[in-house]
Design goal:
The protein is globular and about 60 Å long. Strand 4 (about 75), helix 3 and strand 5 (about 110-115) form a beta-alpha-beta unit. By secondary structure, the chain is of the alpha/beta class. The strands form 4 sheets. Strands 3-2-1-4-5-6-11 form a 7-stranded parallel β-sheet, sandwiched between helices. The protein is about 35% helix and about 15% strand. The longest helix is centred in the first third of the chain and has 18 residues, at about 90-105. The chain is built from 11 helices and 13 strands. The chain has a domain at about 5-160 and about 185-215 and about 280-295: NAD(P)-binding Rossmann-like Domain (Rossmann fold), CATH 3.40.50. The protein has helices spanning about 15-25, 60-65, 90-105, 125-140, 160-170, 190-200, 220-230, 240-255, 270-275, 300-305, 315-325; strands at about 5-10, 30-35, 50-55, 75, 110-115, 145-150, 155, 175-180, 185, 185-190, 205-210, 215, 235-240.
């Protein structure tokens, strides 16, 4: 019988790429999510019955254990940007990560891969970084041979980074950014998935920091994105003191409304995170140590950001028409 991997958060941005790759490897894939009916799109990744979405709440021991039964390997892709509510930083990224690792050890799972983030640190400036650091510590305490992946900002067709700002650029003449000088090292989502496969199949363990071949400032990334979507906008750097004030107001509105109005624009914690560079540390093990050649974002983002161009899918046709007129 083929081997089985349980991927917690397997229908998310990173999880779905890992699920697809493991199906191609011939493994059975159990995609553990809170809403299986919204994850049915993963089923065609393999043959009938090979990839199955199942219900799981990572805040509950019994739920985590039930979907891990018989698994040869486990991947934790669950993360959140919510500091409040039941599924907050601590519950998901610290306690949830530790719970998965502890139960994996108890169940005799052979290999565990944990998706963390660059900057994870129990003493970090932001609550996000602290919870990620606490999660790593809990994972290694329960499962010392786990593979931990710390990616920089991840790009790809379904990303929440380039897509978000490209969408914002469709409206108005100004594109505001916080931390314009902060550096990022964008990593391709499928490169992250390839790294995870190495851990799932037992080819690698340890901590790896994942970044692409380019290091660029936030402002520089936005300018390159604007070139791809063929829009001229002023990239305005919002000072940290102003951003912090905005985040405070938006956080208060979310709190005052009991979460009915969510702060999905800018939180105080995100402002704190944006004060630090998000790049691979000197001396860290990287994609190269796994034998994976990092993919340039320049070679990928035009494949999915075209829909934000003024002419959308017809942009290339219009450009060709202009050349014909000149001829």
């Amino acid at each position: 019988m083929s081997k089985l991997v349980t991927i917690y958060g397997g229908s998310g941005f990173v999880g779905r790429y890992i699920a697809r790759r493991m199906a191609k490897e011939g493994w059975r894939v159990r995609v553990a999510v809170r809403r299986p009916n919204e994850a049915l799109f993963v089923k065609p990744y393999g043959f009938v019955g090979q990839v199955e979405p199942v219900f799981c709440n990572i805040r509950d021991d019994a739920s985590v254990r039930a979907v891990m039964q018989g698994a040869d390997a486990v991947v934790n892709c669950v993360g959140t940007f919510d500091r409040g509510g039941k599924n907050n930083f601590t519950a998901v990224q610290a306690e949830g990560a530790g719970r998965i690792a502890r139960i994996a050890a108890e169940e005799g799972v052979a290999n565990l891969v944990h998706i963390s983030a660059i900057g994870a640190d129990v003493n970090g400036a932001s609550l996000y970084a602290q919870s990620k650091g606490a999660g790593e510590a809990a994972v290694l305490a329960a499962f010392p041979t786990a593979m931990i992946l710390r990616p920089s900002v991840i790009f790809g067709n379904e990303d929440g980074f380039f897509n978000r700002f490209a969408g914002m650029a469709r409206f108005g003449a100004v594109l505001p950014v916080v931390g314009g000088a902060t550096k990022f090292q964008p990593v391709y989502v499928d490169d992250v998935a390839q790294a995870a496969v190495k851990g799932i199949t037992g080819q690698a363990t340890g901590i790896y920091e994942l970044g692409g071949p380019e290091v660029e400032s936030f402002k520089g990334l936005m300018k390159k994105m604007l070139t791809v979507i063929q829009r001229r906008r002023l990239v305005l750097n919002v000072p940290f003191f102003a951003a912090n004030a905005i985040g405070n107001v938006l956080d208060f509105v979310a709190f005052a409304t009991g979460g009915l109005i969510r702060n999905s624009l800018l939180t105080r914690d995100q402002v704190l995170s944006l004060r630090s560079d998000n790049v691979v540390s000197a001396g860290a093990k990287t994609l190269a140590d796994l034998g994976i050649e990092a993919t340039s974002y320049d070679s990928v983002i035009p494949e999915y950001l075209w829909r934000y161009r003024p002419s959308g899918q017809y942009a290339a046709i219009k450009d060709s028409a202009k050349n014909l007129k000149k001829a």
